[in-house]
């Protein structure tokens, strides 16, 4: 799990792009199997699904970063108090 987190932290844009491309592919495959839509409508729906998923992933990453940064500052402040 640590290796995945370190890779994602080093390759943020690649990770987001991979999530977006995977969502496009999954949405296209799902709509192709489920509904008889035109190709243009499938692409529009796939793009909307991918954008929603990407926003959710970016929001989750921002929340994770916020709490990780807050926890790091708290432990740093506690160590300074103990030393001082």
From TrEMBL:
GO terms for biological process, alphabetical: mitochondrial respiratory chain complex IV assembly
PROSITE patterns assigned: HIG1
Keywords associated with the record: Membrane, Transmembrane, Transmembrane helix
Matches recorded under InterPro entries: Hypoxia_induced_domain, Rcf2
Any one GO CC term of the record: mitochondrion
Domain HIG1: 1-76
Compartment annotation: Mitochondrion
Top-rank lineage group of the source organism: Eukaryota
Protein name in UniProt: HIG1 domain-containing protein
């Amino acid at each position: 799990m640590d290796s995945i987190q370190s890779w994602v932290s080093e390759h943020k844009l690649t990770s987001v792009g991979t999530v977006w491309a995977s969502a496009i592919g999954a949405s296209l495959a799902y709509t192709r199997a489920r509904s008889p839509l035109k190709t243009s409508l499938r692409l529009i729906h796939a793009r909307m699904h991918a954008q929603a998923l990407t926003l959710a992933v970016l929001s989750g990453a921002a929340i994770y970063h916020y709490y990780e940064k807050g926890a790091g500052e708290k432990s740093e402040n506690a160590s300074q108090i103990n030393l001082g």
